[in-house]
Design brief:
The complex is a heterodimer of chains A (about 550) and B (about 350).
Chain A: H1 9-32, H2 37-43, H3 46-77, E1 78-79, H4 83-89, H5 98-109, H6 114-123, H7 139-164, H8 167-175, H9 180-188, H10 190-206, H11 209-213, H12 219-229, H13 233-259, E2 276-277, H14 280-311, H15 318-352, H16 356-364, H17 373-390, H18 395-398, H19 402-425, H20 431-438, H21 443-454, H22 456-472, H23 475-480, H24 488-496, H25 501-537
Parallel strand pairs in A: 1-2
Helix pairs in contact in A: 1-13, 1-15, 1-16, 1-17, 3-7, 3-10, 3-12, 3-14, 5-7, 5-14, 7-10, 7-14, 7-25, 8-9, 10-13, 10-19, 12-13, 14-25, 15-16, 15-19, 15-22, 15-25, 19-22, 20-21, 22-25, 24-25
Chain B: H1 2-21, E1 24-29, H2 33-47, E2 50-55, H3 60-67, E3 75-79, H4 81-89, H5 99-104, E4 117-129, E5 153-154, H6 161-174, H7 176-189, H8 198-207, E6 212-216, H9 217-224, H10 229-234, E7 238-241, E8 254-261, H11 268-279, H12 281-291, E9 294-295, H13 304-308, H14 320-336
Parallel strand pairs in B: 1-2, 1-3, 5-6
Antiparallel strand pairs in B: 3-8, 4-6, 4-7, 4-8, 4-9
Helix pairs in contact in B: 4-14, 6-7, 6-14, 7-14
The chains are: A mainly alpha (about 550), B alpha/beta (about 350).
Chain lengths: ~550, ~350
């Protein structure tokens, strides 16, 4: 394995540095600006913000793991009615933006909402003092709604891993009467699970929509209070660096955990494991496991939105929304292709052509995912402004242009692409590329003919996640877009931020619908390819 | 063949010259397009100047700063004086010379150096459930800190710009120490953790979670005339109190929406025309009709609907002080946990 500075690693390191630049720009303004606020922040709000952030991460992480792994396991392993439906329906919540689900849940579960109204009718209560009902605008509420839409990351990656574990492994454990789930599936699927969990946690940290709506004082909300309230971008950047620290710790733990382990398959035996037939009671159990997250993350918010569309039919501007849909989808499509191209290049070079220093730089390039979107957008603005001042680089051609949006999406969502591709590469045996070399075939051809076909599923998974992410993305698009340009997300936001939910409901539904197609397609591809691939390898 | 090319060339020339004739200005806006479009459409109809808009709640000042001299922006429009002042503070606004703006806007609602201008006013008021609270007992914003209101008050988080500006006005009136005592007293009286926007506070009064709330005056109008019959129901038992109206008191705190011309704008004349347009009689009345805001132009009367909620005296503190005290206000808000 060559691992020095070569024609592969040098450009990739440079690209990585460009992608990290906006993050560096945030640090630059953090430590250049006045640090006088630090002691105020430290003695008043910072401990509270940090505690709330960690609580939220722990809660969302645990609940998402529970939803994601349990559902992935039952649809992979057992045979029960409607399973073919659940396989892809479990991915549907991924298309629902967190800021939309927060609005819809509040609408249903608050005092004036239909749910409590129904309870009052049934039990004859007349006012809020007659009974106790948990407030949806709380830590618990935030954990519930965020887990309901974030678990698909874990479901997706875990299921892809479960499907590619050779059947012989399961059979061996069955012969010995051991627990297949705890002793085989879970440990072997760990890279996928951890990759999914990392994405969930980073989304949780950077979320602004839900915590703002629920008034939860997390670090991200604090960033905004300091930035807007004290007119101190440097104070905001300082809080962001606490966020960054948490992310680096997370990513390092993940890295250390898998460093000394190997997940690639030594043999690739027959993989078409027979699904287990189970008792009727267990079938119902399986159905419940699958149904719960789908109801929470999809059926509830979508019904609320549909209800809004019907009640606000006359005030919705349909033609404007259709136009917006076209521009939104094209932007997301090209964005996803670009991000995946960069991801693929980076992870392949990081795996086969880099030394550990280069690896860590490439690794860091994906940290933009954990920053609050607006702060990252400001980092991009500052970075490009710097280019503008120091190198001749006409900013106005770029800001307000689509190029800068694509660049911003790359900084933001590279982690999604990298996560998907890395978990694919980890399962490919390193011998393959060595064998390629002994045959005198060039690295490039080897990658194209061997590696890419083997990790094709992962590329697709990543690409679709990025597509859906860009479709939902709000703060960066809002700030960096050209004049008179709306995406579905910005369209929804301008109304929803004023609590005009009816005007925004149809566009919100379209975001979800536009994400559905790819998500369903994705589910089928994973299932087919992961099986076909295994039988083709040797 | 030659004829064909000539035609195409001619076509391009016409298209291009057309571009030159129709003037355009580019707007960075902190207000949602659907709120300002009625104004812009009227402006374009009258002047023929087209408008393009980017709306974002945050970060536009940073974008403008980074774009520097290359920025395509001509004008910024925003709500809240502190946000407006940030542009001035970063030296992003041009000092313009417009006798019309100076005549239409009272001096305490515009900058001394003619960089930013207030365009409409909104009052931060107290609303009560008139069946449960005696309106005579709340005369001043300061009264809300009295322990007798324990568990009765609802509010959105203190860190929101509207509350931060209110906090700043109290610092300006009573000093930092008294202001902090007030904040602590208010927080002790809250019925629930601060959450939601001003609309949600009115809803909470309707639901019986609290009896008193602090809101911006226009939410009252938006709810009263809401398309949603449920929301119209919320304001039925509501009474609006303009605080600090006693003879020797300072008057109610008001905040502004406003704007300014970008320092590096290439279309300053047209940008000034838009600002001037927004302070004329038609536009000033439109603020009241569309958004229940008060005109800044002293020669324009508030709408009848607004008048019917009560005539009030406003705090004439130069509004720039609110912006300058905002960071201190945020610190007090952080310490009191509002």
């Amino acid at each position: 394995m060559s691992s020095s500075w070569n024609i592969w690693s040098v450009p990739v390191v440079i690209i990585s540095l460009i992608i990290i630049a906006p993050v560096l720009a945030i640090f630059y303004s953090a430590f250049l600006g006045d640090t006088s606020l630090w002691s105020h922040l430290f003695s008043t709000v910072l401990p509270r913000y940090t505690f709330n952030t960690l609580t939220l991460m722990f809660g969302v992480g645990s609940l998402s793991l529970f939803f994601g792994i349990s559902s992935a396991w039952v649809v992979t392993r057992y045979n029960f009615p409607l399973k073919f439906l659940f396989e892809w329906a479990l991915l549907l919540p991924a298309a629902v933006p967190a800021y939309i689900i927060a609005y819809t849940y509040t609408d249903i579960f608050e005092y004036a909402g239909p749910f409590q109204g129904m309870l009052r009718d049934i039990f004859g209560w007349s006012s809020a003092n007659d009974y106790w009902f948990p407030n949806i605008r709380s830590m618990g509420g935030a954990i519930l709604v965020m887990s309901s839409v974030l678990y698909p990351y874990i479901y997706l990656m875990t299921r892809a891993s479960f499907l590619t574990i050779p059947a012989s492994f399961y059979q061996t454990s069955q012969i010995h009467g051991r627990n297949t789930f705890w002793l085989v599936a879970l440990p072997l699927a760990r890279p996928g699970i951890v990759a999914g969990l990392a994405l969930v946690l980073m989304e949780t940290i950077s979320d602004f929509g839900t915590v703002d709506y629920f008034a939860l004082e997390t670090l991200t909300l604090g960033v905004f209070n300091v930035w807007m309230g004290m007119n101190s971008l440097s104070g905001a950047a300082q809080i962001s660096s606490v966020l960054f620290l948490i992310v680096v710790v997370l990513l390092t733990m993940e890295y250390l955990a898998r460093r000394n382990q190997r997940f690639h398959e030594k043999s690739s035996g027959q993989n078409n494991l027979e699904e287990e037939n189970i008792s009727n009671f267990k079938k119902i159990e399986c159905i419940c496991i699958c149904l719960l997250p789908i109801i929470l993350g999809f059926i509830i918010p979508v019904s609320v939105l549909c209800n809004f569309v019907f009640s606000g039919f006359s005030i919705i501007n349909f033609s404007e929304i259709i136009q917006t849909t076209v521009s939104s989808i094209s932007l997301a499509f090209f964005g996803a292709i670009f991000v995946m191209g960069v991801s693929l290049l980076m992870i392949i070079v990081s795996s086969y052509k880099s030394n550990s220093f280069q690896k860590s730089i490439i690794f860091l390039a994906s940290c933009g995912y954990a920053f609050p979107g607006t702060i990252l957008a400001v980092g991009i603005v500052v970075f490009v402004g710097w280019l503008n001042d120091n190198i001749y680089f006409h900013f106005s051609y770029f800001a307000g242009g689509f190029l800068i949006l694509i660049f911003a999406y790359t900084t933001r969502f590279l982690a999604v692409g990298n996560g998907a591709i890395r978990s694919g590469i980890l399962r490919v045996h390193p011998n393959l590329m060595d064998a390629n070399k002994t045959m005198g075939i060039s690295f490039f051809i080897g990658i194209r003919k061997l590696i890419i076909p083997l990790i094709y599923t992962n590329i697709l998974v990543g690409g679709i996640l990025v597509f859906v992410d860009i479709l939902k993305e709000l703060p960066i698009t809002l700030l960096l877009r050209p004049f008179n340009f709306e995406t579905l997300a910005t369209y929804v936001y301008q109304y929803a931020s004023d609590e005009l939910l009816e005007e925004s409901s149809f566009a919100a539904l379209i975001i979800i619908l536009a994400g559905l197609g790819p998500v369903i397609f994705l589910s089928n591809t994973i299932k087919n390819i992961s099986r076909k691939k295994e039988s083709n390898i040797v | 063949m030659i004829k064909k090319y000539t035609l195409i060339l001619l076509g391009f020339i016409i298209l291009y010259s057309n571009n030159l004739i129709s003037k355009e200005i580019n707007i960075y806006s902190h207000r949602q397009p659907f709120l300002i479009n009625p104004f812009l459409e009227a402006f374009t109809a009258e002047t023929g100047i087209k408008t393009n808009i980017v709306y974002s709640k945050t970060g536009l000042a940073e974008r403008l700063q980074a774009e520097g001299a290359n920025s395509p922006a001509d004008i910024i429009l925003t709500v809240d004086i502190a946000r407006l002042y940030i542009y001035r503070d970063k030296d992003l606004l041009a000092s313009i010379d417009s006798p019309l703006l100076e005549a239409n806007i009272p001096h305490y609602l515009r900058s001394e150096d003619n960089t930013w201008f207030g365009l409409s006013k909104r009052a931060r008021v107290i609303v009560i459930n008139k069946n449960k609270v005696n309106a005579e007992e709340i005369k001043r914003m300061e009264d809300l800190a009295h322990p007798k209101w324990k568990g009765k008050i609802c509010s959105r988080p203190g860190s929101h710009v509207y509350n931060r500006a209110l906090m700043a006005s109290i610092i300006a009136a009573n000093g930092e120490v008294e202001a902090e005592k007030w904040a602590n007293g208010l927080v002790a009286n809250l019925a629930r953790r601060p959450q939601g926007n001003d609309r949600a506070q009115v809803k909470a009064i309707f639901e019986g979670q609290c009896d008193i709330a602090i809101i911006n005056n226009y939410y009252f109008g938006k709810l009263k005339f809401s398309e949603d019959p449920k929301q119209r129901e919320w304001v039925k038992n509501l009474k609006l109190i303009f605080p600090n109206q006693e003879v020797d008191d300072r008057g109610s705190h008001v905040n502004i929406s406003g704007g300014g011309v970008v320092k590096f704008s290439k279309n300053k004349k047209e940008a000034i025309a838009l600002l001037e347009y927004l302070t004329n009689k038609t536009a000033q009345q439109l603020y009241g009709e569309i958004n229940f805001e008060y005109p800044v132009n002293p020669n324009v009367e508030s709408s009848d609907e607004l008048e019917s909620w009560g005539v009030f005296r406003e705090d004439k503190l130069p509004i720039i002080n609110i912006a300058k005290l905002a960071p201190l206000a945020q610190k007090i808000i952080d310490r009191s946990g509002w």
